[in-house]
Design a protein that fits this description.
disordered N terminus, mainly alpha, 8 helices, two-stranded antiparallel ribbon
Amino acid sequence: MAEESAAATSTNHEVDLGHLMAYDPSHHLAAVPSSRAELREECLRKATELAQAVADALFALPATEGRDGPVVRLPPPTNRLPREKHLPRPAPPTKWEAFAKQKGIVNRKKNKRTWDEQTNSWKRNYGYDRVNDDRDIPIIEAKMTDEPGVDPFAKRREEKKGRVDKQEKNRLGNLRNAAKVGALPSHIQLAATAIPITGTKADLPRKSKKEDLENVAGMASSATASGGKFDKKLPGEKPLKKAGKHRKFLPVAEGKGMGNLEKQQNDKILNSLLAKNFEEPLDVSKAITMYKVKKDNNRRKDKKSSSVSDKLKPGKKIHKKSSKKSA
């Protein structure tokens, strides 16, 4: 009877090996658990049954011997799990993509390297050490249309800078259009939270509020070593509302009550370090006594070892002065 009941309970499990998942759709609690421990035991028991069902179905698959042991191929999943986030929205086409679609231009795959006749070697089309680089040309032939007195090398640099600025302007425009639809790439979304994209609403200059100005003025006035205590106040300046806390150190010279303050400080440090992971409260007086006893024992051992070493050292010879005077 026990085997039949176990088989009946095992048939209620629905196993999805594609996700390595098992669940019991007909499972229900017979009664409301009286305590949290009882509920935990019931969850552990059911989870053990489901894990055993997944293991049984996994070992029932046909296996092939691999280099690291038997290997099985999982079947396709039967259940469709929901996505954590929504599907990515399609980004709007850029100006070039819209123009290429209108004119019927199809991108063709080009070679990344081209033969350079000046150096007789293969070079990249773009980037560092590219073919036909402007910086590799020592002489530029003058044309009839060139204006006299114009540096052709400086003119080339200005033209290149203008092309780069135009490309950057087009890139930012494409990002602004994608931000309106909500189709920004993930890495641009993270960067946009810290540095807003130029031309968006987040990039507009924000009018400073009175509270912000007061906070900045208060921070500047309390940025000295004395916390602004000895600084000259401006006419109409209000005191800082939220004054910062400064660390207080014990004085170097021992005075009245210094021993008690030092003991309280040591007790606080011991409570924070030693009693953090203990359920029972820490006996501070006992801990201090144990620390002092251990310190005294170490001092005695050091003293004993030093005395023994002194005995082993060769003693100095004492020469007595003779009482006889030389004639």
